[in-house]
Amino acid sequence: MEIMGMFQVLPRLVVFDLDYTLWPFYCECLSKRDMPSLYPHAKGILYALKDKGIDIAIASRSPTSDIANTFLEKLGLKSLLVAQEIFSSWTHKTDHFQKIKQRTGVPYTEMLFFDDEDRNINAVSKMGVTSILVDDGVNLEAFRQGLSKFSQNRSSLERNKQRWRNFSQQSSSSQEL
């Protein structure tokens, strides 16, 4: 919670990958009977977001959505999620994000995304989502980096909107002359 207090602008929705982002394994390598575990900071980050009123979603290309869903249930995380898109795909998660946006109504520019695969980060960033690559799961440092980058992106977006408004006003006044 302290980390979030450092930033004036926060995302409306934070989206996480599962495998090697929230937990340290591939779902397809385990069975539903196994008891999963999260990376050490993951649960605290998820609950801090929820306490702050920030929505949480999952975007995973896991080929075993049944196992992923079972693990989310076992870990008590299902109730924290406003959306979960877990399906195998060749689109580097762009389909996942289109569905999340459709379900939540949150614009891409108001989302923050964590994933362990560069190709997903690159593809989703092009949609306007602030995206952070995690090396060894989501942790407090990656979370801080994500909030910082999100805040910078939102500030530049607001500056550009203001420049456009000023330009539009100048253009319409010069046309009146």
Automatic annotation (TrEMBL):
Top-level taxon: Eukaryota
Q: Name one Pfam family in it.
A: Acid_PPase
**Which InterPro entries does the protein's record reference?**
HAD-like_sf (IPR036412), HAD_sf (IPR023214), HAD_SF_ppase_IIIC (IPR010033), MDP-1_euk (IPR035679), MDP_1_eu_arc (IPR010036)
Any one Gene Ontology molecular-function term assigned to this protein's record:
acid phosphatase activity
Per its UniProt record, what SUPFAM superfamilies does this chain match? HAD-like (SSF56784)
Q: What is this protein called?
A: Magnesium-dependent phosphatase 1
The organism encoding this protein is Sesamum angolense
Q: What is the lineage of its organism?
A: Eukaryota, Viridiplantae, Streptophyta, Embryophyta, Tracheophyta
